[in-house]
Amino acid sequence: MNDLAHCLTIAGKTYRSRLLVGTGKYKDFAQTRAAIDASGAEIVTVAIRRVNIGQNAGEPNLLDVLPISQFTILPNTAGCFSADEAVRTLRLGRELLDGHALCKLEVLGDPSNLFPNMPETLKAAATLVREGFDVMVYCADDPIQAAMLEDIGCVAVMPLASLIGSGMGIVNPWNLRLIIDKLKVPVLVDAGVGTASDAAIAMELGCDGVLMNTAIAHAKDPVLMGSAMKKAVEAGREAFLAGRMACKYYSADPSSPTSGLIGS
Known about the structure:
This protein is an alpha/beta fold and 264 residues long. It has 9 helices and 10 strands. The protein has helices at 29-39, 62-65, 83-96, 118-130, 143-152, 173-182, 196-205, 214-217, 222-242; strands spanning 8-10, 13-15, 19-22, 43-47, 72-76, 102-105, 134-139, 156-159, 188-190, 209-212. α1 (29-39) runs parallel beside α9 (222-242), α4 packs parallel to α5 (143-152) and α7 runs parallel beside α9 (222-242). It starts with 7 loop residues before the first strand and ends in a 22-residue tail after the last helix.
């Protein structure tokens, strides 16, 4: 899976894996590293407000386990509920990562369902793009607002499949297809994946990638689930490139030829 059709390009950098993973909710850093290795992910997202990457001197540092020489770190704004809060958080992340521009923006609107606050998301995205950030943005599965984020200059748009951490899978594939068909920047499913088949479906729909955390970290065996997700994303991408057969409703098509039968 090394040819360009299987690779993902974001902000001018190409990655072999189309699976992006989070770093929270594991029992310890050792399990985090083992699960991420099994997933094959090259981009790992880190909640600046929750995980130490140098802002808390003397505490265990995630970058000792996931060094920037081996992974692209994607600082995110998990836990932020306003544009100003999100912008401040990513400015801190850029400082901690020595000017690293790639970031994941999420501005939440409700602490109970963690649905994105789109007016604040759009406001924060505009500020961050002006300041030179390469913004990957968590958003509602709304094709109009997704296009607005692309117009602002975001390098990737990441609509939710379903609520963060819910594991409900893709609840509205039609909206995802509208976004995929409309946008030119990469479209990645972010949030709601529960198992490998969800990831495969997202890729079969034409998504450029999948970002997940809870589906791997809260599995009974996170390392094995990381491996399963790697295979699911690859299989879904291959199925999309292959082009599935057309659905034929209310009629069958025998898999064996009907002409030239023995005895006919």
